[in-house]
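ok so dumb question maybe but i'm new to this and my supervisor (M.) told me to 'just get the structure for Threonylcarbamoyl-AMP synthase' and walked off. so i did the thing. is this what she meant?? sequence i used:
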Amino acid sequence: MAKIIKIYPENPQEHLIDEVVKALQQGKLIIYPSDTVYALGCNIFDIKAMERLAQIKKIKLEKAHFSIICNNLSHLSEFTKPIDTATFRFLKSHIPGNFTFILEANKSLPLAYKGKKTIGIRVPDHPIPQLIVEKMGYPIASTSIKDEDEVLEYSTDPELIAEKYDHLVDIVIDSGFGGNIASTIVDLTSGNPEIIRQGKGIL
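this is what came out, is it supposed to look like this??
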């Protein structure tokens, strides 16, 4: 049964963030708010947690394209090939923000990402995921929560989300109503920004 933790972006309580970080370090799954939609997250270095994440999405882990949530660009060189100055400046001017950037992956990716040629990097403009990653010291794997509703593509009510994912995740962070427009996906692998999916972020 998932534990619901109320954390508000205006005043995130440190001990609650610590509780979430501890859970992630233990391989648990969380649902957390972002600057776009609510998302599922786990420890990128915990293969069992990553497998659970893939299971929820009904896909095989090797076929999954989970984003990596960072709190700044400092983790970039750990997971991506070197980027040129123009790309770095472009990234810097658009983070934090409502974007997922596709970059060329290097060979130091965590086990669950092995063999991937590209990786999606995201720095949400939201204090809660930023604080979680900052406290952990490394990024989290992430995927948006989709809704079966034809009108509303993404679930926005944390109470309904908690009800639906009650036996699938360990913690649901209730941060009030979320958005229902996902991030804009921008491919930077060619050196020129190419929008793969138009979402909330406007270039």
